[in-house]
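Can you please make up a protein's amino acid sequence together with its fold in token form to help me picture the idea?
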Amino acid sequence: MNYYSTTNAADFNGLRINTGNEGQFFCYDIILQKIHERIQLMTKYSRVMFVRADLRLPHDHQPSGNNEEVSHLFKIMKENARTHNVTFHFVWVRESSPDGKPHYHLVILLDASRVSNYVAFLNELERVWGHVLNCNATGLVHRCETDQFGNYTGNGIILQQPTRQATGEERAAQEHDFWSKLNWITEWASYLAKVRQKESTPHRVRRFGASQLD
């Protein structure tokens, strides 16, 4: 994995990313590219739902050391998605917590014609995480709905392609909404690519993973 190429530019492939007001933060290009590819693929659907979440391990859980837990989680989620004919893609990254245990940040994109309730989706994610860890996972899945002050910021963002019937001002408004939200989610998703808290990942342990592209 190439972890040497980084950027502190304000955008990546023409879409906004978060590198701070003065470019003081750096992001890994390879992780940004994984995110960009999956967003690009999923926006072939007329409606796409973007979901952010974070995963933690219980205090008494001894981590596998090689991300087996999060890999197992997405194996089950993919099987469930296939059963219900739901297309989804994801990117996860591993970072180090102050106690030395890993935690994970997730970006998930779903076909919103099949799944449009992000709360129900996160409930299922929490249930499966509990199954993987063999515990009650309440509180181990952070739903990324509020800022640091507790203000509601939203999640489950729906990207709606302009409709074929829309013309003139209506189409312009729909296109503006689509591109505004697309920049919003890429900027938010770029948090996963930040260099900070990844350098202490053990040697030969992956710092991120992503769904296979179709």
Notes: Residues 168-189 form the longest helix (22 residues). The chain has a mean pLDDT of 93. The helical segments are 29-42, 68-83, 118-133, 168-189. Strands lie at 6-7, 11-12, 15-16, 27-28, 47-55, 88-96, 102-111, 141-142, 157-160, 208-210.
